[in-house]
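Spend some time on the protein that follows and explain the fold to me:
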Amino acid sequence: MHALNDWLKAVRADGLVLVRTRVAGPWGFAVEPRDAVVFHFVAEGRAFVRQPGTESLELRAGELVLFPRGSGHEVAYSPRGKAIPLEAFLAKRDGVVDRNPKAVTLICGQFDMDQQLALPALRALPQAVSLRAGTEPGCSPLSDTLRMLRNEVETPNFGNQIVVRNLLSSLFVFFMRDWADTTSPAANDWFSAVRSPHMARALASMHEAPERAWTLEELAQEVGLSRAAFARNFSASVGEPPHSYLTRWRMGVAARLLEETDLRLIEIASRVGYRSEFSFSRAFKSARGTSPTQYRRAASNRAGSLRI
């Protein structure tokens, strides 16, 4: 599972709680499409999740739904209950506790991450994924994490924000790990690829040495397949050719270095397999829609606003 470990470290899912409430009576909110993985957890009671063109999904206590690609949806007290914009719902209900014994306790949030880097995995997931996590202690790491998350968001204490952020990161890892463990090898997608000895080795090789000038022949030799078989199997399972994936990974590594270090562009270029600053900058702009310098400046501005 080295390939999945490297991927999880690189995408760095940063969790954020959007809604924490205990609400009774008619209620509902609409979540607009967003560049994030969105989740809803019903700690008690029940709720209904709706998407255009699909049947309503009922969530009972201990159940969780994730929207891996952040598609728009609604959450309400009934299959046809009215939904108001999320911002309006938050203004009225976020953090409010209704003492009605029939109230629903909801914890909703999102995982922000490098969407370009995460794409091969996210597009292998259904548009909505529902899970039965359970509510009893010891059911699973996923259920224990959700139980601790509920306790942290409901019980004010010093360090709450730090604990919640770490719990959300763990929640994402447990979900991805569970999904990878239960995916059939016949699924022929990114999750089956990280469990396949041949494809996992190829992914790990690229993850571990993005600076290496990998050729198709070298990657095929690395995993013990013919060039044609390797190219065919990789594209079918990962969803793109090997060198497209390698470029995606290199740009993800470069983005992290631009955000977290003061390395010169030529030094970053060397670390991700480019011989010149010009060729690296051209590849980065093609992949990310902005130059490395502009990307670094924007990242610095975001970090500064968070510190304020």
Notes: The chain has a mean pLDDT of 89. Residues 196-307 form a domain with the Arc Repressor Mutant, subunit A fold (CATH 1.10.10.60). DSSP finds 13 helices and ten strands in the chain. The longest strand covers residues 14-23.
